[in-house]
Design brief:
The chain is mainly alpha-helical and about 170 residues long. It has helices at about 1-5, 20-35, 45-60, 65-85, 95-100, 100-115, 130-135, 140, 150-155, and strands spanning about 40-45, 90-95.
């Protein structure tokens, strides 16, 4: 409530931390149980690109880091998203689709959130780093093969294992 008092009746937060934080999930359930309106959207991205980006940017700061370590974290976060979906209606959008056609997807997101459609809010959106995993020069990324659990999750969200991202 203090956040809403300060920022207004509608707050957008893109923090990926919530996807894997059980305490945040419990707080959201308690907040909703008090009659508060909570709405969510999920923006997923090809996990190979996510893992490549995270590993490339941060591996020097994380002891024992590896693409497999990042894969396990990604899976945990998306398993948590599926847990959240049992309690909240959460439409899922793929980053690659949204970035390729923001004028198609953003109005749907705005409507779901109950806010006015503002095209300027997404006029800067461009597909960046799509297929990054296929062009990485890092030997760790080149030699990494996603496990079966990740491949199954990729299929669920419409991603193929060939290097080109599947954009419909």
């Amino acid at each position: 409530d203090a956040i809403l008092d300060k920022l207004g009746p509608t707050v957008f937060d893109k923090s990926p931390k919530y996807r894997g934080d059980r305490a945040a999930f419990e707080l959201m359930l308690r907040y909703r149980s008090r009659g508060n309106d909570l709405r969510f959207i999920a923006l997923v991205r090809d996990p190979r690109d996510v893992i490549t980006s995270q590993f490339t940017l941060w591996n020097h700061l994380v002891e024992g880091d590896s693409p497999k370590f990042r894969e396990d974290r990604w899976l945990a976060q998306y398993e948590h998203l599926e847990e959240l979906q049992k309690h909240f209606y959460i439409p899922v959008f793929r980053y690659e689709d949204f970035a390729a056609a923001p004028a198609v997807y953003a109005p749907i997101m705005f409507e779901h959130c109950g806010v006015r459609h503002v095209p300027a809010a997404y006029s800067h959106v461009k597909p960046v780093n799509v297929g990054r995993h296929a062009t990485s020069e890092r030997t760790e990324i080149q030699s990494w093969t996603p496990g079966e659990k990740l491949r199954a999750m990729m299929r669920k969200y419409g991603y193929r294992m060939d290097p080109a991202p599947m954009i419909e």
